[in-house]
Amino acid sequence: MNSAVQQEDETSWWLRLLRGEPNALAFFYERYADWLLKYGLSVAYNRELVQDSVQELFIQIWNRRENLTVPQSVKYYLMVSLRRIILKDVMSARLTTDLFPDHTLAVDDQPGVDFEEVAEANVRKLQAAVRALPPRQQEVIFLRFFDKMSYEEITGLTGLDYQVLRNTIHRAIKALRQALIHNIDLLLPFFLISAI
Amino acid sequence: MNYPDFNEEDFAADDFFQRWVLEQDIESESFWQNWLVDHPEKRLIVKKAQWIVQNVSFTETWSPAERAAMWQTIQANLIQNIKEEAPVIPLWRRLGWVAAASIVLVLGSVGLFYSRWSDQEIRTSFGEMRQIKLADGSTVTLNANSTLKVANDFLEKPSREVWIEGEAFFDVTKRIVKAGKVPFVVHANNLTIQVLGTAFNVINRREKIDIALEHGSVKVVDEQNTTNAVVLKPGEKVSRVAQKAPLVKQAIQIEDYTSWKEKVILFKQKSLTELAEMMKDMYDIDVVIDNPALKQETFTGSFPADSAEVFFDKLEKMYPIAIHKDGKVFHLK
Known about the structure:
The complex is a heterodimer. By secondary structure, chain A is mainly alpha-helical. Chain A folds into 2 domains: about 10-100, RNA polymerase sigma factor, region 2, helix turn helix motif (Rna Polymerase Sigma Factor, Chain: A, Orthogonal Bundle); about 110-195, Arc Repressor Mutant, subunit A, CATH 1.10.10.10. Chain A contains 10 helices and no strands. Chain B folds into 3 domains: about 1-55, no CATH class; about 120-255, Jelly Rolls, CATH 2.60.120.1440; about 265-330, 3-Layer(bab) Sandwich (Phage tail protein beta-alpha-beta fold). Chain B contains 10 helices and 22 strands. In chain B, the strands form 4 sheets. Chain B has a 15-stranded mixed β-sheet that branches. In chain B, strands 19-22-21 form a 3-stranded mixed β-sheet. At the A-B interface, helix 2, helix 3, helix 6, helix 7 and helix 9 of A face helix 1, helix 2, helix 4, helix 5 and strand 20 of B.
């Protein structure tokens, strides 16, 4: 969908929300709950904490709607707000992070026979490595590589200095590369015969 | 930038390199393609960096049930307007029993099909959903008003072949015979879906086809022009809106295409026209939109697969719509 159209559409829904239409809250929940839960897990890997925070976010928006204005981007506004709620809870040391499920870490190192299997094993290893990163690094990796936000947008959202952001991404990539150090070379024969 | 000295780590962490892999804009695309021509010895390092950037994924999912439970908690905590509302008669009461009865979901039995004698055909009726276990261990969940055909020599042929009309979710098991993999092939209205071991959803209704991949990988080929082919990655779908139309690939939330298996029907930004078609295809409920201005209105939401009255109810609350039933037809005004 054209993003200008989507924004206009969202603005009118947001206005309905400010006027107190419950359906408008449901509209934003349907549209963004999944995405916020995913993003929330990159801020703090704890499903219960993230669920609570997303609930709190929507409750706050409704109960405080008299004081709200129309944001330029609802998605961005929701992400910033969710991040604040999660970090507040993390700061108060209420909860720790979940363990990443063990079976995904114990990826067998048997070289596969075809590209599909080798690639799948590598993807699983990479996923486990991402989840093993410190929280801040997970979040910037999510925003840059998964949400495809620009560096400028990420500094705006996280409050990280540009140079700090670059260093954080570099450190994260280094850790991911370390995790894949032997496995990724199994992909080389397939890279040789494929076009860029 | 000192690109010739870069290792894969440096490339993957470079903003401009990421732009090429993630956004493929013209500037970065032409720069990197040219750069590779000048530095062919860096090709493999670049490939590795590219692979890392592309494959970072966050796959945790949340079930429709979890989402629904969260929504209940939210609603319980909202400070409500004090304004008294007029008592509302539940819609299904006004519609009467026929509507409720016509959308009862018949829970399917799991049947085993050994197709040794002739082609097997399994058909579901309106509002019925059925799970089928094939002789190779693969399972097919067949949605309402759909037909699955299985070749008679399903296990003997070099490839396992089935045909689908309507909607189905396939969970295909890998099959290896004499150290060779046996492909699984789904035919849908002149499209061929080639599979090794994977799970995906197919919609083949009204000439429109929609194939959404949950995990694994599939290749979709146009039978009338085999150069017209698309390879799907998890979380992508390919669709074709009419015969001979091009195949279009796009990223999706896979739950939007698979939640029906959990008996939750999800809509995102669906026009009322599309919804009317769906009610007809799945429940044989006729929905007529009397006010042309409504046709392009969109609906985002969900309803339990076995109670379409919730759907009409939500619709009535979201829009200034009057719904009334005339014989077997629902009119939206």
